[in-house]
Amino acid sequence: MTTPNNKKTIDDNFCYRPDFKYTHDNPYHDKLGVFDSFVLRDEEAESNVGHWKERIFKNSHPLEVEIGTGYGEFMMEYCQQNPNINFIGLDHRFKRSFSVAKKLDKLEHKNFRYLRARGERIEFMFDESEVQSLFYFFPDPWPKNRHHKKRLFQKPFLNACHKVLSPGGTLFVKTDHDGYFDWMLDHLKDEKRFEILLQSRDLRKEYPEHFLSQFTTKFEKIFLSQGTLIKSIVLKNIKG
Description:
With 240 residues, this protein is of the alpha/beta class. Helices cover 28% and strands 21% of the residues. It is globular.
C-alpha cells in the first residue's frame, strides 16, 4: 500500500503477521520523540502486551482504544470528560500524529497514550480480553473496487477485535460511506462472535441521544455540512 509518507509498497496481509516490521524514513518519526512521555512509536507499543494498566498507566482503570484518531478531536474530548479511563489513540500517519501529539501535550488529564502504529496490529499491541472498548470512526473507505482489499473492516480485523476485547466489550463504528457500511454489514452476516447492539443509516436522526451522537469529529462536521448521513454500528463481543 502506498501512503503519502511511505513510498514503499506494503503487503496489507503482511501487517497481520507476527514478523511484521515497520520501515520508513519519515522525519516526523524522530520529531515524535519529543513527546516520548506519552507517545510510543512503531514496535514500542507491542512490548506492552498485557501490561498496559500496571506498567504504563499504573492503575486498574478500563482500557479503551481508538483506531485511527485522525485529528484527535474525539480522543481529546473523550479523555477530558472521562478521567477515570485509560485511553489509547493510534494512527499511522506521521505529520498528523505529530500535530495531534502537540495538542495532547497541553491537556489537563494525562489519562492517555498515543501510538504511531497501524490498526492491523492491535492483536500484537493488546493481550486477549485486555480492552474494554474499541472506537473506529470515519476510516478511509477505499471506494474503488480494486482497493477494497485495503479496507480494515474484514475478517482478520474482526478476529483481532474479538481477541483483544473483553467479554461484553464493545466496538463502536461510524462512517460516512454507504458502500463501506454495506461492506461491514456483509462481513457481519455470518458472524457469531458479536451481537449487533445498534445499526443505523442515519445515526443523528434515529439515535440523537446516543453517546455516538454527542461527539463530532472534524471529518464528521464536514460530512454533516454536506448533508451526508452518518452510518453506525455498535457490536458487543461474545466470548464463551
